[in-house]
Design goal:
about 220 residues; mainly beta; 1 helix; about 40% strand
């Protein structure tokens, strides 16, 4: 008897080129749709409504002491998921892929994926090395003549190394927080849809090479 399994041409892919402080970075991808809210009122929506497809780094928890919770086991996860995600090492490159069934609705124009990344120090991925984050969504859809084709949508956030080296007590140190040398981000949040539409989500500070249109207006003029 033939196998019921079919190979899939649809996938979600994340590529990370970590800078020299990879432990500061956490990221995740979750399913969404165009009709989903772009805001997260209390942070719970990020961790509770849909399963994590891909993740990297450590989960991000709410602040210590909120709601009386002080231990990691009791605190709410805002980004990522325990047991999901690869650990990140300094100056290394990573590729994470989630294969999607071609017939599960992933090719629908309403089908989207939310990518969120958090840098704990707030200096992006450009400290001590060139860093980048890239999200690629590939789905199967019809061409103008009705034949199947691969539709590819890709976003890339590139942070050039803007670290300055200076001497502290006679030793060379890396300084990444000089406002004149580094445009910072601490939070990236975008929605990328199978039909090619891209939306900035609440709090997004990353332009992904698309200009200021994706950036939350509260951060559009902040370095």
């Amino acid at each position: 008897a033939g196998s019921a399994h079919r190979s899939s041409a649809s996938s979600v892919r994340v590529n990370v080129d970590a800078d020299s402080f990879a432990q500061e970075l956490s990221w995740e991808v979750r399913r969404s749709s165009k009709s989903d809210s772009k805001t997260i009122p209390d942070g719970a929506a990020a961790a509770g409504t849909t399963d994590v497809l891909l993740a990297g780094g450590m989960p991000v928890y709410d602040e210590d002491g909120s709601s009386g919770r002080t231990s990691a086991a009791d605190r709410r996860i805002l980004l990522g998921q325990i047991g999901v995600g690869v650990p990140l090492a300094d100056n290394e490159s990573y590729e994470s892929v989630a294969c999607l069934p071609d017939d599960d609705g992933g090719s629908s124009s309403e089908s989207c994926f939310d990518f969120r990344a958090y840098d704990a120090y707030g200096d992006g991925q450009g400290c001590g090395a060139d860093g980048s984050l890239s999200l690629t969504v590939e789905t199967v859809g019809p061409d103008p003549w009705g034949f199947p084709r691969i539709n590819r949508v890709r976003l890339t956030q590139v942070d050039e190394d803007m670290a300055a080296r200076h001497r502290v007590n006679g030793e060379m140190k890396v300084a990444c927080m000089d406002r004149e040398k580094l445009s910072k981000w601490s939070y990236c949040a975008v929605r990328i849809c199978a039909d090619g539409e891209v939306f900035g989500l609440e709090g997004n500070q990353c332009d992904f090479g698309q200009g200021d249109g994706l950036i939350d207006e509260r951060y559009s003029n902040v370095d």
